[in-house]
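subagent[fold] <- orchestrator: predict structure for attached chain, return tokens only, no commentary.
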Amino acid sequence: MLKWIFPNVQTPSMDFSKTVAIIALWLFIILVSCTHDQSYIKSFSNDITTQGFLNDNCYQCIITAKPDPGIEGLVASRESAHINVMKSLEKQWYDALINAIAQLQGKSVTDSSFQQCLLQQLKQYSDNKVIVVTYFNEDFSETAVVRIYEKRLQQKLATLRCK
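subagent[fold] -> orchestrator:
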């Protein structure tokens, strides 16, 4: 009856249905975008041997560490190797990224002040790294496969500049 008297005024039930429709649309968009990201990541999930860029958005680093000398026994050797991988993870990860930047930019990265400048800029990507898999080798060493996911990562690293 209100529609006949006031045709331009919306009833609360009309606002509610629009709100529900908008919320449902946003949830659908979020669901589709998350599904896309998962399928995108799974598209190269089996590659654990490549050191370098898997595509423009993903860099993969392979880090290996041996157990401490003098450690005997399978369990002790593996524990020692795992501790060493975790200790050296950050340093080896940054070293691999700095070498990748040097290759992208066609420069030699021997200057320590240049390396420190790059390290400061690379810290923002540290949150985007993921340990994909770790495995033990026949010599009791452990290998960790670490990936960094970032949109246009290769382009971003190629354009990093230090004074």
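orchestrator: received. Logging for downstream: DSSP finds five helices and four strands in the chain. The radius of gyration is 25 Å.
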